[in-house]
Amino acid sequence: MAGNINLVVCDDAAAVAREAARRFAGEICARPGAVIGLATGSTPEATYAELARMHREEGLSFAGVSTFNLDEYLGLDGTHEQSYRYFMHDRLFRHVDVQPWNTFVLNGKAANAHLECQAFEQKILALGGVDIWLLGIGGNGHIAFNEPGSSVDSRTRVVNLTPDTIAANSDGRFFKDAAEVPRCALSAGIGTIREARKVVLLATGSSKAGAIAAAVEGDFTTDCPASLLQDHPDCTFIVDRDAASGLKSA
Ligand code: GLP
Fold first, then answer.
1. Residue 147 lies in a domain
2. Which residue among 28, 38, 155, 212 has its CA within the 20 to 30 Å range from the CA of 57?
3. 225 lines ligand 1 (CB under 6 A)
4. 66-69 and 132-135: which strand pairing?
5. 203: CA distance to ligand 1 center in Å?
6. Residue 121 is a catalytic residue
């Protein structure tokens, strides 16, 4: 292993979700005013379902929790079904008791996107920083919408999406057609993410095996943005067997 990344290999995607939800619930129980970072994409959906179940059946309360999301498509407002604000409302927020005014998702329709990005960073600082940030990973190693080449100290900003990412997000799970996918997004930077006290990255399925191997065992390089977590003091990757299948050490 090239860095400090803690690796947890689970039997399947359901076990990944249970393990991730257990860790986030633990943070919230330890600190009811926890500041948690969230992600979108298919991978965390089962984790959100498990957190919603824990709220319903076990009394896990989000009443004091603040949330920050990694990213949002430029040009989509929160009522658009493919916006990340809509996704979060649909998959998690409406199922738990989080206060809507404590959920921070970048506004893809902000009049000034650059100011929106600065305000997002300032809000994180004002709340004392993110305690634990949940991440997914793209097949090319991207985290949030930090595509290969993004610098280790990048901050929240407007970014261009790569053709790979546009194709991955228009395979029918989200957008039906690549032409519908916005070409730009607002994204927390790698520097922003690295400042979280804990980082938990999830990956399931063999399409992520190459990215996981590069991130965990490859060089610390902007070619694989997730590898830039290798020197984080508290970073855990929770993956299923398929996503671990490219690792020499697993
Ligand atoms: C998008 C998101 C990322 C996410 C990635 C992988 O690009 N911006 O935050 O990690 O998709 O998504 P999935 O979990 O659907 O493979």
1. no
2. 38
3. no
4. unpaired
5. 10
6. no
Q: Which amino acid is at 180?
A: E
| Residue 27 in domain | yes
Report CA(248)–ligand 1 centroid distance (Å).
Answer: 24
Q: What are the φ and ψ backbone dihedral angles of 82, each rounded to 5 degrees?
A: -100, 5
Provide the domain count of the chain: 1
Rounded CA separation 160/187 (Å): 10
Give the integer Cα–Cα distance in Å for 57 and 64: 19
* Structural domain harbouring 80: 6-136+158-195+218-235
Q: Would you tell me how many other CB atoms lie within 10 Å of the CB of residue 125?
A: 9
Q: What count of residues does the chain have?
A: 250
Q: Residue 179 domain-assigned?
A: yes
Q: Is residue 243 part of a domain?
A: no
pLDDT tens digits, the chain, 250 residues: what are they? 457 999 999 999 999 999 999 999 999 999 999 999 999 999 999 999 999 999 999 999 999 999 999 999 999 999 999 999 999 999 999 999 999 999 999 999 999 999 999 999 999 999 999 999 999 999 999 999 999 999 999 999 999 999 988 998 888 888 989 999 999 999 999 999 999 999 999 999 999 999 999 999 999 999 999 999 999 999 999 999 999 999 998 7
- Counting ligand 1 atoms within 8 A of each CB, the residue from 76, 83, 137 with the most, and so the one to mutate, is 137
